[in-house]
């Protein structure tokens, strides 16, 4: 017994060390104060990570796109024609720099559907669904292996694939099982705000992810005029989210939230894209969301959409891509909330 004791001690220590390492890599000890990073077309100056730290950011989402098209079973990713930040070289470097700056990482692959863009309505005929999911599995498992090798804290297995997520849950459960076989961190799926209650595989994941573009007000009757009225208009959605959390018993993360710098931006970006430029309403919308949710125990924080790793020339980008908060009033609101750590 005495002869084998040292070996037992060594084995226990190794196991405890591994467990401790995994826990430290995967557990989110604080509410997420995050941003989604726009993958840049070329290598960027690390000074932008200094700016994020100064803003109070604790987490970043790295977003490598994959591409498919209607009538095709292919999923294209890490292609030579993609931007640097979406190819493996850029993904590795971005994760490395984020960790060097003390930021935790969500690796969050997105699908882009050629000719359609948003993947929410993308659908594959039953005769080809096996082939498509086989390609999609390779796409996600590719990033699962990167996430594991880079000690990434969390991985999203999909983003806003509304029809495919609702109609083919068995394929997603199979993907989750395969992903857990190669990746030790936390898993999440990023559902659109209008269908998160229809996802049937939340219990197989660690978190509920919602892209939180909830339109305010929900009933479209009341008029919102100031911060308090916008905060009050969240009440129906908060009740719905609270009830949902009670059913699934999983923390909720807003894998995306954000607003356009447009009049009445809190109404829903698909309804206000042609409205007049308005930084004030964007700032009010940010302030209301973070004020309402920061006190909710079941809300684990979120990632603002979106942050460019480059300087933003005002006239070139501000009106064309109104989701930008950099250099606008909304950035000061984000800093006000993020710098206090919720």
TrEMBL record:
Pfam family, one: GH113
Coiled-coil stretches noted in the UniProt entry, renumbered to this chain: none
Record-given protein name: Glycoside hydrolase
Origin species: Mangrovivirga halotolerans
Organism superkingdom: Bacteria
InterPro entries for the chain: GH (IPR017853), GH113 (IPR055151)
Family annotation (CDD domains): GH113_mannanase-like
